[in-house]
Amino acid sequence: MAAIITETQSIKEAVTSINTIELNKFSRLLSRILQKLHLKEERTFSEEEEQKLQSALSLDKQDLSLVLDTTAFILEQAVYHNVKPASLKQQLEKIHLSPEKAEAFCQAWTAVCPDVVEKVRQRIFAPKKLEHVGWQLNLQMAKSTQAKLKDPHAVLELGVRNEDSQSVVEKVFVEFSHQELLQFYNQLETVQAQLDSLT
Amino acid sequence: MSSNHAKVAVGASKDSSFLGGRIPSEIEIMAKQLKDLDQEMFRKILKAVVSAIEGKDCREAMKAIAENAAVPEERLSYVVAGMYRLLKEALRIPTSSLKQEVKNWLLIPEEFITDFASVVFGNRRTALEAVATQQGPRLPSLKDFRWRVDVAISTSSLARALQPSILMQMKLSDGKAHRFEVPVSKFQELRYNVALILKEMNDLEKRSVLNIQD
């Protein structure tokens, strides 16, 4: 198994700091980081939480950020290579992490490994992503150009979220007559057939 | 009381009910103008008006008719306006409810009634109705739908990802194009919902709600 972590200078420093932290505090730190690992752009700890951590772990600001970044880096690498817990433990001991800390990493990793990998796998790179599907079925009784209709019409609402704007969802409205909806459905069935042929 | 003469009077005829309570003034005026209009000329104008309703550009035809000095422009405009209005109103109502008895339509001279009737009840009717369906207020409909299934083999966060995803591009009738990616789970949701709507539409079309007799 290729080494997922090379022992650079900053890694050495981080390891030294990590080895000084109390075990149970470190375990909690680990699980917290693991929770937020699959979300990009989000800081694992807020400003005040970092302040508290500084005093709790008796580390100064620089050391603390080094510890947090390194732990996150180790976990990201673990996800990337999808390492087994045993292999992870070995590698951590190689970079001189204390055995108990390595064990803590190992246990935390075993617990959440499949979930985190799955969540990261589901992440999509796209400027726009379909988030929400809503619909409405109407019966058209008349129009200005035609009276006495009995025309079923469906309106599909697609909520599309832009990658950069976290809160704004663009709503796309599309109207279908019965015939048009049937055509659309047949196209969706073709896509499904393609998906099925992949597995 | 119900002699032929009285039936032709304004507003008294039962068959003019499709025009509403009051006969629109354009039609009244047209009816007067149609007296002693040449049959040939009438047919030409009718043809131009019908192609206008179909949505075709009829400026050439109208110009040709106007240049023919036999009909003064004012009279022509009354006739065209009245014809257009009459046909539009008649085409609005489905043939099943429009009474077949058009012989006593308003004050229109007999010889022209057959021509009008052939437009309203003839085989051009379906084409005209198709145009009417397309017009009228509508939310944008799907003009073009393209899709693509991708499999992500590797990403910067995962060496072996092997995750399929779908890219969809929709071009709508209002000209806008939307391109977005659909995760497989959302695609299933979309497919399920579309199938559900189709089922509901089928149920709706069978229910007795639609057996309302007009």
UniProtKB/TrEMBL annotation, chain A:
Protein name: COMM domain-containing protein 10
Residue stretches making up the COMM domain: 129-199
Lineage top rank: taxon: Eukaryota
CDD domains: Commd10 (cd04758)
Spans traversing the lipid bilayer: none
Gene: COMDA
InterPro entries: COMM, COMMD10
Native source organism of the sequence: Oncorhynchus mykiss (Rainbow trout)
Database matches in Pfam families: COMM_domain, COMM_HN
TrEMBL record, chain B:
Any Pfam family matching the protein: COMM_domain
Taxonomic source organism: Oncorhynchus mykiss
Family assignment from sequence similarity: Belongs to the COMM domain-containing protein 5 family.
Name of the protein: COMM domain-containing protein 5
PANTHER family: COMM DOMAIN CONTAINING PROTEIN 5 (PTHR15666), COMM DOMAIN-CONTAINING PROTEIN 5 (PTHR15666:SF1)
Lineage of the organism: Eukaryota, Metazoa, Chordata, Craniata, Vertebrata
Cellular component per GO, a single term: nucleus
Domain COMM residues, every copy: 141-205
CDD domains noted in UniProt: Commd5_HCaRG
